[in-house]
Amino acid sequence: MSDQQSASRGPLLRTLQQNGLTLVFGAAFLLTLVGQAFAGHAKFNSELTAEHLHAIGFGQYVTSSRFAVDVTENWQSEYLQFFLFIFLTVWLLQLGSPESKQLHKAGTESDREQRTGPFARPDSPRSAFTGGLRQTLYSRSLGLVMGTIFLASWAAQSITGMVALNEEQLRGLQAPMSWGQYVLSADFWDRTLQNWQSELLAVASMVILSVYLRQRGSPESKPVGSSHDATGVEG
């Protein structure tokens, strides 16, 4: 669609067209989060009933540590995946994958290639023109934010997981754990590692399968006619 055609549309339609990918995934996220809340509530009350305890309301469940740990354990693994992928692809390459840079571009690249300093363009972000700490932070801001979200969600998982486990311990008349004991416990690492391994497998699969397979029209795939050795080329 040309810029003129886009401008002729109303503001709402133009916003939807320009942000469709984010909006669809955001809506899908909210729907699945709500679905998880209802399913988790039913499962938790089933467990309470089996232990001859009173069921809890939906509002009480979605503000509980049990729901919080189930949510945050998935968030932290997702952001770990993105954090590692963003930073490792600066240096590590995969011949033939559109998920990799071209083989001669390993590293942080030159100012000319990155359009910073004297090579910034009129439409470049303001931080691309400046030097020093501001540009250093901005040039790594995506990975830093992803890493920060990962650490925050990991910490939230560890705290809410400790609370949820201690509630189970107290119901069974067992001594509660401290935070330090919990992050060294099998329960914590079972929750954590089962999510990490699935995310890392998914990334590795995407990197290698995109060498040989195609999805016409997707920027995550090479053009259908590209050779298997073509690297850093998107369709």
Task: Break the fold down into its secondary structure elements and pairings.
Layout: H1 3-8, H2 11-18, H3 20-50, H4 58-62, H5 65-91, H6 111-114, H7 126-129, H8 132-138, H9 141-171, H10 179-183, H11 186-212
Helix pairs in contact: 5-9, 5-11
Task: Describe the model.
This protein has 235 residues and is an all-alpha fold. It folds into two domains: 1-57; 64-235, no CATH class. The chain is elongated, with a radius of gyration of 23 Å. α5 (65-91) runs antiparallel to α9 and α5 packs across α11 (186-212). It starts with a helix and ends in a 23-residue tail after the last helix. Helix content is 66%, strand content 0%. The longest helix has 31 residues, at 20-50. The model has no long low-confidence stretch (mean pLDDT 89).
Can you tag this structure with a few keywords?
single chain, 235 residues, mainly alpha, 2 domains, 11 helices, 66% helix, elongated
Question: How many β-strands, per DSSP?
Answer: 0
Straight-line distance between termini: 17 Å
* Mean pLDDT over the full residue set: 89
- The helicity comes to 55-70%
Whole-number total of structural domains: 2
Proportion of beta-strand residues:
under 5%
Overall geometric form: elongated
Give the low-confidence spans.
none
Largest sheet: none
Number of helices: 11
Radius of gyration: 23 Å
Q: What is the H-and-E element order?
A: HHHHHHHHHHH
Class per helix and strand makeup: mainly alpha
Short description:
The protein has 235 residues and is mostly helical. 66% of the residues lie in helices and 0% in strands.
